[in-house]
Design brief:
Elements (H helix, E strand, L loop, with lengths): L1 H5 L1 E8 L5 H11 L24 H6 L6 E7 L2 E7 L8 H8 L3 E7 L6 H13 L3 E6 L8 H12 L2 E4 L1 E4 L7 E4 L4 E6 L11 E6 L3 H7 L1 H17 L5 H5 L3 E6 L8 H11 L6 E3 L2 E3 L7 E9 L8 E9 L1 E3 L3 E4 L4 E4 L4 E4 L2 E4 L2 E3 L3 E5 L9 E3 L11 E2 L4 E7 L5 H14 L3 E5 L6 E6 L3 H13 L4 E5 L4 E5 L16 E5 L4 E5 L2 H10 L5 E2 L2 E2 L1
Length: about 525
């Protein structure tokens, strides 16, 4: 068991849309032999889609909407990749996926640098104190100066950077990278008409090699000598301890589309990351090598297989070994159960598995009893992992069903999609489910919600945008809602668990509520 856990690596890939995250994921799978042809990810016009994008709406838009999970073997390691949605309208699903990872790979577009979405995701990584590795992609296109890119990462994200390799030119002048550890230049040679379809050929040179000057030209040769001297003398020292606590990010330059620099990156990453990390519970820290099985649910996905109308709970194993048919305790449900149909997933395709270990992500059939953040453990162990934060939605819509005869399907669809965590549902206090307020982190989730209600639950809905931008949970349960002194545009609602919240149009209204109601405690997110 110990050696199996030691060879596990579980990481999430994060980026802003179009930085090349799905392409990088595919190249990893290619090296691991999990797929034989990279999908050349394109938009609607292309019939082939990335292996990791399976939902119909993703294929139409050419983007990742839900988080996918993929496992493959490489060089003796068993690797679990969590591919997160990169779209700017991504949902909370992305935040939660990061709760299941032990490290993160941040993909940055060399011409655009740090973008808005990267900042949001980065904050979650920092909150988790996990290692962050940076892959600066698309060096074979015109890009910004590597110094500017590193400086921006340090300023924007507040993390030190350590370039593991250094680019030689960019765009049509991109000639390769200098590997600082091996002290060798890997020359980049795109394969003419086939650039992007095949691997780039690589040649190794040492810095002193006379052939290097001829291969990259005088100007780039001189620049490289100066750059190497500068980064060796002026940069941060490499500190593995800082890397492991997310204070220093190892940075790699390359081009995922042409495969250049991807394999050296994967090899360094595997050497520098750790096996599964210990996890906090209310009862103390759980060691991954503890023989007692424990896990938590971080994602629920309904209707992955339209023919079966199933619900899959994705669980991250935190300690011990899972065996098919074993009995576990569902802590929040207060009962023992057998996890049926345990599956290893590769986006939409799946296979039933016999065993899995700490660090692995598996899917189990959910009969409708699991919620996000639930703990599963060996019978009698009674531990509960820390809850996964529910982030405050930023956009709100009033939703009704068009056909009142379909109330049952409406309630079922809205409730199930909310349990998956793609949307949050709120109701007027004391009211039924005839109309609900749906809150989301990004507007794409409204489209996904409407699409799924129509296609999976056969319910037509109307949606009316509401003028609220902020939501706050009321922390003091004893407060009398009727006596609250609030602005006229503030709305009182309750969530699915019956907790009270306030919807605000602006920050001024929040300040008013706090100033005019002594002792009122409001929080930006609740924990599941």
């Amino acid at each position: 068991m110990k050696s199996e856990i030691q060879r596990r690596r579980t990481f999430a890939i994060i980026s802003h849309p179009d930085a090349g995250k799905t392409t990088l994921t595919e190249k990893f799978l290619l090296y691991g032999g999990a797929i034989t042809l990279a999908g050349m990810v394109k938009g609607k016009r292309n019939s082939r889609h990335a292996v990791s994008d399976w939902m119909e709406i993703e294929k139409q838009r050419g983007i990742s909407v839900t988080s996918s999970v993929m496992q493959f073997q490489y060089d003796g390691y068993c690797i679990n990749i969590l591919d997160t949605p990169g779209h700017q309208d991504f949902s909370e699903d992305t935040y939660r996926t990061l709760m299941a990872a032990d490290s993160a790979v941040m993909v940055i577009d060399a011409s655009k640098g740090v973008e808005a979405q990267t900042r949001k995701l980065f904050k979650v990584c920092v909150m988790r104190d996990i290692p962050i590795f940076t892959f600066i992609n698309k060096m074979d296109r015109d890009s910004r100066s590597p110094y500017d890119l590193l400086d921006e990462i340090e300023k924007e994200l507040g993390i030190g950077t350590y370039p593991m390799n250094w680019p030689i030119g960019s765009g049509i002048d991109f000639k390769g990278v200098y590997d600082r550890e091996r002290k060798q230049v890997l020359q980049f040679e795109p394969d003419g008409d086939n650039a992007g379809r095949k691997e780039a050929r690589e040649h190794d040179f040492s810095l002193e090699d006379e052939g290097l000057r001829a291969a990259i030209g005088d100007s780039l040769y001189e620049t490289l000598q100066e750059d190497v001297e500068l980064i060796d003398g002026a940069g941060y020292d490499f500190d593995l301890e800082k890397v492991r606590h997310g204070k220093l990010s190892p940075v790699f330059f390359g081009s995922a589309l042409t495969n250049f620099g991807v394999e050296p990156f994967l090899e360094s990453f595997l050497k520098l990351t750790t096996p599964p990390l210990p996890r906090n519970t209310a009862q103390g820290v759980v060691d991954p090598f503890d023989p007692n099985f424990s896990a938590f649910v971080f994602k629920i996905q309904a209707n992955m297989n339209k023919a079966h109308r199933d619900r899959i709970a994705f669980i991250r194993i935190c300690s011990g070994k899972f065996e098919k048919g074993m009995e576990v305790e569902h802590v929040q449900g207060g009962r023992k159960m057998k996890l049926s149909q345990p599956q290893q997933l590769m986006a939409q395709s799946r296979e039933i598995i016999e065993e899995a270990y700490a660090g692995d992500i598996i899917g189990v059939f959910d009969p409708g009893v699991f919620s996000i953040g639930d703990t599963l453990c060996a019978p009698g162990k009674k531990i509960a992992f820390e809850g996964i934060p529910t982030f405050a939605p930023e956009l709100f819509s009033l939703v009704r069903q068009k056909d009142t005869m379909k109330r049952k399907q409406f309630v079922k669809g809205a409730t199930q999609i909310a349990q998956e965590g793609a949307i949050q549902i709120f109701q007027e206090i004391g009211a039924g489910m005839e109309e609900i307020i749906v809150g989301v982190v990004g507007s794409l989730q409204f489209d996904v919600f409407q699409y799924r209600m129509e296609n999976e639950y056969n319910v037509d809905i109307t949606m009316q945008t509401l003028p609220y931008s902020y939501i706050r949970w009321i922390d003091n349960e004893e407060i009398d809602l009727k006596k609250l002194n609030l602005t006229s545009d503030t709305r009182k609602v309750q969530d699915m668990r019956g907790r009270y919240l306030l919807l605000f149009a602006n920050q001024w209204s929040i300040n008013w509520a706090l100033e005019h109601n002594e002792g009122l405690q409001l929080s930006e997110f609740s924990r599941n």
